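queue> pop job 88
queue> type: inverse folding (structure -> sequence)
queue> payload:
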């Protein structure tokens, strides 16, 4: 990776594929990071429907490496492969539940589990509403084993003027949760001021 720090970005089939795409765009724009991309089959469809028919091709071009969802033998499936952490954006309830309860039958969930066992940061942008008790229990379980649950909530106090601004804020917030400032900060990070109140 020529000195670049690896970061895994997983995109699952929940609505909100543009957030995952923006995260990849921001990280790929910084020469200090190398994006390892994993896209689920359901996410391929969501990307096409929500972002455009060329979205997956654009993502693959941006990533340092695109790994097949089925390739559980990929380098990022091993704890010995050094990365800074992983973001799943958006994270479907199916993917959340699989991570929470150790159902590691594909590369996305396997790579996520590796982050947890290696005590690296795993950020899950869980995209679902409303939530039933089963969803909440999966979130609790994932949190107890070390994941960061970060639903893609807009920062309304910043008064976003467009959907792009909302996506940018959510993407930057997710990247910040990896605590990359200990390495080198991404080129484009949100540093908004304000409070959501109590």
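queue> result:
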């Amino acid at each position: 990776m020529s000195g670049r720090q690896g970061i895994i970005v997983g995109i699952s089939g929940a609505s909100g594929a543009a957030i995952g795409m923006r995260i990849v765009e921001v990280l790929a724009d910084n020469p200090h990071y190398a994006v390892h991309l994993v896209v689920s089959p359901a996410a391929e469809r969501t990307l096409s429907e929500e972002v455009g028919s060329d979205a997956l091709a654009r993502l693959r071009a941006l990533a340092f490496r695109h790994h097949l969802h089925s390739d559980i033998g990929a380098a990022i499936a091993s704890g010995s492969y050094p990365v800074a952490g992983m973001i799943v954006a958006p994270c479907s309830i199916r993917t959340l539940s699989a991570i929470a309860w150790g159902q590691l039958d594909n590369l996305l969930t396997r790579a996520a589990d590796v982050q947890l066992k290696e005590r690296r940061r795993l950020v899950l942008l869980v995209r679902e509403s409303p939530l039933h008790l089963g969803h909440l229990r999966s979130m609790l379980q994932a949190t107890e084993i070390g994941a960061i649950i970060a639903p893609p909530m807009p920062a309304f106090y910043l008064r976003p003027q467009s959907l792009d601004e909302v996506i940018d804020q959510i993407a930057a917030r997710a990247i910040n949760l990896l605590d990359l400032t200990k390495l080198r900060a991404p080129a484009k990070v949100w540093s908004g001021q304000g409070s959501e109140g109590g």
